[in-house]
Amino acid sequence: MNKIRIGTRGSRLALKQAALVQEALRQASDGIETELVVLHTQGDKVLDKPLAEIGDKGIFVSEFERALTEGEIDIAVHSAKDLPMSLAQGLVIAAVLSRGDVRDVLVIPKGGRLPWAVKECPDEPGRMIQNTYVIGTGSRRRQKQADWLWENVICENIRGNVDTRLRKLKSGSVEAVRGGRECGEAECGGSIYDAVILAKAGLDRLEIMSRYAEQFSFYPLAPEQFLPAACQGIIAVEAAEGSPAAALCRRINDGSTELCFLVEREVLAQLAADCSEAAAAWCRWEEGRLLLDVMYAENRTALSSDGGSGVGETGTGQEDIWRQKGLGMARKAAKLVKGQGKL
Fold first, then answer.
1. One domain, residues 84 and 159
2. In a domain, 23, yes or no
3. 244 lies in which domain range?
4. Is 111 domain-assigned?
5. Does a structural domain hold residue 309?
């Protein structure tokens, strides 16, 4: 094919991710002509409600799948963590790019206060516990882990793209909440947040941490403590199964990232978990072992495979072996965090 039409959302982050796919395709196929086609999803239009109240992860994907099915675009670029568990009939994930940083980041205005870690909560006589600390996030996963990690934290819903959330954080005020009365965003003159939590991969792709260094402080959260969403940091490319576009996209697929993508998606499938669930999964390859951490509601588990030669090695036959090992770990981990098994 001489030209490939790339479907993308219209936010700066979505356009940046589409541009990364665009460049990868050009390098892999002798400079094939590409065109970006911007589509608007239900998730982009409804910004005054948490995602859990307006639908599952498909709210960011369904419009692209319609366009793919009807031939309006050749491929669609997604943040992999937004994908629903079941794709539309006849569509596949044709490629994933090399994974970005999986961590979440706590973002506070310059000069703002940090939350106190639960384990560091002082027992000193006369020392007061700090007032309520308000974090902007609509993610049940982030809400649950924030409650575990920090003292006296509450989470309030926040929607919008990265720049919108940072603008709300910078211009907002929490004085009314700290004073003990309830208020809405409009009444408080903006937002009511001390901090927001954002994915580092998105911040990196937009160079946010350097661009906003004078306005905000950024604190990456260790993934061992604060587990990322399944497939966080992964860019996925969807196409019609068996199409020339799908075949072309296989040239830009990253094998190691694809293994983690499949394992983490299998965890969600086994848990039947969508965006309304407090669920997390983090798979990675370290020193000859495949590692997997999973959280579901109140439970967590960590699993490790035995050693091996790795994944994505052409001609070794290791890809299928490690895929089966990884999927087996995903099923075991899901069973454990659902309280149906023992380590």
1. no
2. yes
3. 1-99+233-253
4. yes
5. yes
80 and 132 in a single domain? The answer is no
pLDDT digits (tens, 9 = 90+) for 103-149: 999 999 999 999 998 755 555 555 555 678 999 998 999 999 999 99
Least confident of 7-11, 39-43, 111-115, 221-225: 39-43
Quote the Cα angle for 187-191-196, to 5°.
Answer: 160
84 and 119 share one domain: no
- The pair of structure tokens assigned to 258 is 């694809």
Using an 8 Å Cβ cutoff, are 62 and 192 in contact? no
How far apart CA 200 and CA 194 sit, in angstroms, is 19
- The residue written with tokens 């001609």 in the block is 315
H/E stretch holding 300: strand 299-304
Q: 223-279, pLDDT tens digit by residue? A: 999 999 999 999 999 999 999 999 999 999 999 999 999 999 999 999 998 766 899
Give this prediction's pTM. Answer: 0.85
45: domain CATH number is: 3.40.190.10
The answer to whether residues 174 and 163 belong to one domain is yes
The residue whose two tokens read 């999973």 is: 294
**Regarding beta strands 153-156 and 195-199, do their DSSP bridges make them parallel or antiparallel, or are they unpaired?**
unpaired
Cα separation of the two ends of the chain: 51
Percent of the chain with pLDDT over 90: 67
- Mean pLDDT score of the chain, rounded to an integer? 85
Could you tell me if 81 and 16 lie in one domain? yes
In a domain, 58, yes or no: yes
**Domain identity same for 4 and 88:** yes
What DSSP character marks residue 266? H
Burial of 25 (0-12, 13-18, 19+ CB in 10 A): buried
Count of structural domains, the chain: 3
Q: Are residues 134 and 183 in the same domain?
A: yes
Q: What's the pLDDT score for residue 159?
A: 83
CA distance 308 to 63: 41
Q: DSSP 3-state assignment of 96? A: strand
Both tokens of 174, joined, read 């929490």
Q: How many CA atoms lie within 13 A of 120 on its CB side?
A: 7
